[in-house]
Design brief:
The chain is an alpha/beta fold and 353 residues long. Helices cover 47% and strands 16% of the residues. The chain contains 16 helices and eleven strands. The strands form two sheets. Strands 4-3-2-1-5-6-7 form a seven-stranded parallel β-sheet, with helices on both faces. A four-stranded mixed β-sheet has the order 9-8-10-11, with helices on one face. Helix 1 crosses helix 12, helix 14 packs antiparallel against helix 15 and helix 15 runs antiparallel to helix 16. It starts with a strand and ends with a helix.
Length: 353
Amino acid sequence: MKKTITILGSTGSIGRQTLEVAEFLKIKVLALTANSSIDLLEEQIRKFKPKLASVFVKKAADELKIRLSGSGIKTRIVHGMQGQIEAASKSGADIIVTAIAGQAGLKPTLAAVKTGKRIALANKEPLVCAGKKVMQAAKKYGTEIIPVDSEHSAIFQCLCDRGIKKIILTASGGPFRGKTLEELESITPEEALRHPSWSMGSKITIDSATLMNKGLELIEAMHLFNISPDKIEVLIHPQSIIHSMVEFEDGSVIAQLSNPDMRQPIQYALTYPKRKPSLTKPLDLAELGKLTFEKPDTDTFPCLRLAYEAANKGQKYCAILNDANEKAVERFLNKEIGFNDIPKEIEKALRGI
């Protein structure tokens, strides 16, 4: 098993859970990065004592240095994009977990890929915006990329055979499954942030509510598994127990099931190809009772349709889709636009090319 780890984005949801798993597995932490959340990063540094920590915002990095002075902790503090890249490429860790949200994760992820070390890929935007470039770099440097997204981890675990017919990505449906366009007009950010199955950051939670998260995941799956978008199907699965499936040419379908807990796919990426006891609660199918599926409503939730459209048109469209979505979600969270305006803004950007 790999013995050392770097976590890019250690103060986010995935980063925090990765530290739980690393502590459970007794994996040494060599480097941590954050944007500006130095209260939590300081706690992490004092506990795990990495040799390097990077804070994107310089003022926050300077404040962190002051807080740690005289503590006896020898963690070197760097800042800016260059600091993120240094943590990604020069910590010497066996595994680099890339969990920086949004497009900001692209350059550090590329730097990590060029190390030739294992990448536990937890941010989908680098593949959405530059999937061909990232995967070509991985091939060039002999880098092993293990997906952390629960859906892609499930697919990775199911790909035990040849003759793949299609990939089936499952989606919880978010908090507004079954609602009409009219009902969505008055949705507030507070309502959209109440996800029924997962505890995630605000941006990815809104993406889940609009089904854009599944759209970004289908683009990510294209690059990870070298498969065309017409061979990727999305199904709504409200219980969030089956994380994804692979259908083979003979009609067989292999699925990966577990309780909705990101620590399971995180641990699998860290321990692959071995499996070890984990922090995830074992699945009790009898207690669960039933698993249900339905087709997504792309008329009410058009973001998924727009993602398929961008995926079929090429990388430039995928990058524009991602950028427009990030901006629209931010505006919605700031209450500048309504929930139904998110796909309208994205479509406007795509049509403006």
